[in-house]
Each structure stands twice: as C-alpha cells, then as structure tokens.
C-alpha cells in the first residue's frame, strides 16, 4: 500500500481490515513523522482478527461458538471477559478462518464479552479484536447478522462511526439531553461529555 | 540469616508497593528557549502517553501581564477532531480545548496544539493547565492519570530575535464532506460535515459557496463565499440541486477546495414543469400529426 502527496509533518495512520463477510477488525493506529521528499516504509503491522459469536444468548452449560478470520495458520487466542478472564486457543485454517467452541458452564448468568488476537510463531502478536457481547441465560438465542445500525457510536445508523456521528455528538456536548440526544450518551450517565467522545473514537470506522 | 532477612523485607516492600508510574504527561515546550520583550515564542502543548489514549481536554493558563497570545496552530496536532477548538478569545482568557484521536495515540511528544505568544513584559511567565482530562482508548473512556508539567518562561528586557514562523506554501490536505440529516440538527435540514488538516500553519477557517452553475461560468457569475462557515454546515439549497464548494484555508492563506456534488438535477417543481411541457409537446405533436394526415380528432 502506497500513500503519496502527503505534506511533511506528524500523522496518525489507522488501518483496519474487512473479512469476506464484511466484518471489520479493530483499528491499528500508529503515529508517524514524515519528512518532505523522503520515502518512509512501515512494516510489521499486524491487524487484529475479526470476531463473531453464533449466539446472542447461550443457555448456561451449552457451548457458544466464537469465530472470525485472521492470517492463515496463525495461533488465535480467545479471551472471554467475565468476573475473571478465560482463555482458549485455536489455529486459523489455510483460509484464515478460525472457530472456537467455548463451554459456558464456567460462566455466571449475565453479560459477557469475548475478544481474540492472533499470533505467528510466538513473535508477531496482533492487537485485540473488537469485543463481541453475549448473554448467559436460560435459553439459546441465535445471533442475527450483525446489524451495525444501533451499534455503539453509530448515531445516524449508516453502519459507520465517522465524522457524521461525531457531529451529532458534538451537538449534544454538555447540553440537556432530550429523546434523540440520549443516543449520543454512550455510557448512559445522562450527559454527553468527553467520556462519550472517547468511546466514539474507540469505535471509529471512518 | 541476619543478612538475608532485611534483604527479603526490602524485596517484599518493593514488590508490594503500588505502581506509581504515571502513564501520561502533559507538558509545554517553548521555542526558542530564550526570549526578550517584543519577541515571538512558539509554545507546543505536548502529550506523552505510554498507553493508547484518544480524548483530551483542559484549559491552558498563562501570565497575561507578560504574554499575549497571537495565534494558535493545530498544524501538527495528533488530535483528529476538535470538540472545542483552542482559540484566542481575549487577551487574558484561558485557552480551553477538547478533542479526540480516533484509533488513539501512544508515544512521546505528541503535539496537541501550538500557541504563538508575543512577550510583552520582562519577568517570568508561567504557563500551566487546569481541568486536564486524558482518556484511554479502551472502549469505555477510562481516565488516564496524568502528570502536568507547567513551564516558567524567563523573558529578558532586550529582544533575542524570537521565533520566526516558517513560510507555509502547502495547502491543506485533501478532504471530503459528508451529507446527513438529523431531526435535532438544523430542524431536520440536510447538512454537511467536513474537517481538513493542514500540516504547516494549521487551518484558519472554512468558506462555503453553493451554485447550480457549471464551473466555466464562474468568471461571469462568481461564487458568493460564506467566509464564516463551519462544520456542520446547513445547506441553503435544501433541494440538493447545487454543488457545494468548501474551501479550507490555512493561516498562511493557502486554500484547498472540496466539491460536494449536487444530489439531484432538478427540483420537484422543475420536474413537474418539465413533465407538463413534455406532455403539451407530445400532445401538440400528436394533433399536428393527425391534422397533417387529414384525420379528425
């Protein structure tokens, strides 16, 4: 990938990948200072895997399948966040697809989330994937196709978290919230402040 | 055994003591370091952060008896979007700022923004911060403990030459505008959002113009620029039949134009009129054809 005609100065570059199902990885960002007329090569960028769950709610004791895509034949480390974290490992296939069946019997009832990261030869380690949330309850509920509309930060439901969402949130910044403004209150503390912008920035898709 | 016991206790104290390392530091750096009355000095507001952070806010205070803010530049800033863009409002008002960096920043000497001060009195000028918030890029906006490093800047009675701003002949970076509507913004009218970056002197302002005319006619019918426009911008032509020209101008006067194309060729009214004209034309042609061939209506 080549970028040209950039002015000299400090930049922050962000990259993400999209798997063949249209699911996005989290952003990988790095600052870089560019000099006029010079070529700067950047290597060693390892983008995090994508991740999905087959259920939005799993009956306690059943398995929930966590899957996604990464680099072919890489070690995938799955982390399930609960009161304590549980780890599992698997290997992506030659197409980069990975799948891990997690036994939910060790989890309490309630909300949990899972993330994954990839590793090649114990040397190159990616960042963490976005978190996929699920419930442990009394029934199994299949996850629907990730409708990004309504996902955290997507205030105008265009399946992106970008400048438009920033603009809507900026409108509500430090204002009294009314019905439509509540969607900008991402941490549900009844105000739109810097914390909500931080959450928005962490979900940025561009 | 007597020698080993204190050693063990010392090790245990080290291991059990809370981690006191601070992950973020906000500091200021003055260029040049030596200035005199009448000199310009550039003060960079810097962030060091060991872990990824993505939101920053606070206010900067300075000795108004010895320093006068002249301009603010975000040219090399790590901040991608400003919620509150730092600006000079009055001679002694604090400079407040709030902004975000999508994807986060970690590293040393990340410039948040730079202020150009003019030294107006000899003595020691202090530059400090209040209400600093640095939030982690962790998805929940966790607060990052931050150390503040204020600056005491000595100002001599005689001039040293001061800071010379480099010439900026590079226009702002290419940028695009995005269209949206929201019931709460501009009463549900269509609006554009945009943001540009200039790595030299920094963005000074935006100007916006709308026109349905093709650009080759602009020499006859010049664009009427709204020089005080800012993002979000409510489009005047809500039929979205006009191209919207957005110009980002840096502090050196270099401009970069971005054109948001018209979304429709005609308004609803124009479509109705055109359809009526078309119907009349077809009907007239049909009548003419009937008469020409001698057929009765």
TrEMBL record, chain B:
Keywords, alphabetical: Membrane, Signal, Transmembrane, Transmembrane helix
Signal peptide span: 1-23
Transmembrane segments: 272-288
CDD domains: Type_II_cohesin
Family matches, as InterPro entries: CBM2/CBM3_carb-bd_dom_sf
UniProt key word Phosphoprotein: no
GO molecular function: carbohydrate binding
Protein name: Cohesin domain-containing protein
Upper lineage: Bacteria, Candidatus Kaiseribacteriota
